[in-house]
Design brief:
This protein is an alpha/beta fold. The chain contains six helices and seven strands. It is globular and about 45 Å long.
């Protein structure tokens, strides 16, 4: 589904520009949490508010989506949160090897046709990008409502030598949630979740 164009997007982006990441991250020794495909930033904002000692980065390539998160971060004064308007393939330009402690992928596009598999954010070509950026004790947390994508992700992780430390085909709610998760839970849709490290 195509997102409608936000009104006055350029002006809104300029007003919230302090929350837009434009240079490589300098974590400064603290915990670095990254959410890929953060959409409107609900999870990123809730995580930053709940964990003020961590630095949170929400990565999204659609400005019309991420502006909502930027404006919320500005309203709530979430100084430990920034948004990165970029493709996932650009991550090495902004994060150094071993910098990311926690990497979250929530409800990404399943790209259902087999020819589209390399576009899935848990495909091995992307896992190869994430791996060097994770800290030695870092982890990847993945959630989806799509059972075939969940099965695909487990196979890709195994093929790339990742270790799945937790796997739940019907996971319970957690403190921070995306808008998609809230919608699916309200409909009674099972949320598949796993945690893996490299």
């Amino acid at each position: 589904m195509r997102m409608r164009r936000r009104k006055n997007l350029t002006a809104r982006m300029e007003r919230a520009a302090d929350f837009l990441l434009t240079a490589p991250v300098q974590p400064g020794g603290g915990l670095l949490i990254v959410e890929l495909g953060c959409g409107m930033g609900r999870f990123a904002c809730e995580t930053a508010a709940a964990r003020p000692g961590a630095f949170v980065v929400g990565v999204e390539r659609v400005a019309d989506a991420v502006i909502a998160g930027m404006e919320r971060a500005r309203r709530e004064g979430l100084e430990n949160l920034r948004f990165l308007l970029a493709d996932v393939s650009d991550l090495p330009e902004f994060f150094a090897p071993g910098d990311i402690n926690e990497l979250y992928i929530h409800f990404c596009d399943p790209w259902p046709h087999w020819k589209q598999a390399p576009r899935r954010l848990t495909a091995r070509n992307f896992l190869q990008i994430y791996r060097p950026l994770l800290a030695p004790d870092g982890f990847l947390r993945f959630k989806t409502d799509n059972a075939p994508l969940f099965a695909f992700t487990q196979k890709e992780l195994a093929a790339e030598g990742w270790t799945v430390t937790h796997c739940d085909p019907d996971s319970p709610p957690e403190p921070a949630a995306t808008g998609y998760e809230l919608k699916f839970r309200a409909q009674g849709v099972p949320i598949h979740a796993l945690t893996a490290n490299k």
